[in-house]
């Protein structure tokens, strides 16, 4: 799924703060949005493995939620929601497509790596690939929920995130063609630095 979808999912989850501790809602929403997108920073460094931890993020989330209940501060609330959203992201990736540059082909059986189990979780493909129409639909629904539960001051941010999702969906497949053309022009010495999954897809 798109990083924006994950960010919105984290922000929706953080809506719980409105009920239990409304004064901490701003930090919860920001932390959840950042935590939701954070794992995808490993896009070019062993994607869905380097910064994706389905089990360990959940464990850290449980620890910091407990700490926050005992010692409620802006810092502990932020850490708790960051790890909750990062864990949600890592788990949600197993419901999407596989780990290939052209996931609409459905050839990869690697969705996200679980370090605790020491194996790759397989893709369910409920959402076929990041940037698929159903991925955008989910982002729109999550964005709508954010608009419903949060004050209007956050509306422009939600609109921008959903807008980025729409643009990414439109460009998802063309971007692969552009990157392929760029990779094809690289000399062998630089080609070795390109993530293997990119090269594999281009040669297939």
Automatic annotation (TrEMBL):
UniProtKB keywords: Membrane, Transmembrane, Transmembrane helix
Residues passing through the membrane, by range: 55-84, 132-150
Entry superkingdom: Archaea
Protein name listed in UniProt: Membrane-bound metal-dependent hydrolase
Originating organism: Halococcus saccharolyticus DSM 5350
Lineage: Archaea, Methanobacteriati, Methanobacteriota, Stenosarchaea group, Halobacteria
């Amino acid at each position: 799924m798109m990083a924006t979808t994950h960010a919105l999912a984290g922000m929706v989850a953080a809506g719980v703060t409105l009920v239990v501790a409304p004064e901490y809602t701003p930090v919860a929403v920001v932390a959840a949005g950042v935590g939701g997108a954070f794992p995808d920073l490993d896009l070019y460094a062993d994607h869905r493995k380097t910064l994706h931890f389905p089990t360990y993020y959940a464990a850290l989330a449980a620890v910091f939620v407990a700490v926050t209940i005992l010692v409620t501060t802006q810092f502990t609330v932020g850490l708790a929601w960051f790890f909750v959203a990062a864990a949600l992201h890592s788990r949600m990736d197993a419901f999407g497509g596989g780990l290939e540059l052209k996931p609409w082909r459905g050839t990869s059986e690697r969705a996200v790596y679980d370090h605790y189990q020491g194996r790759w979780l397989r893709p369910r493909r409920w959402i076929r690939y990041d940037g698929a129409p159903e991925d955008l639909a989910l982002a729109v629904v999550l964005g709508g929920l954010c608009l419903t539960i949060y004050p209007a001051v956050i509306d422009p941010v939600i609109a921008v995130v959903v807008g980025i999702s729409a643009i990414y969906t439109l460009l998802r497949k063309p971007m692969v063609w552009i990157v392929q053309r760029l990779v094809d022009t690289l000399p062998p010495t630089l080609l070795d630095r390109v993530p293997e999954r990119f090269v594999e897809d281009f040669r297939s």
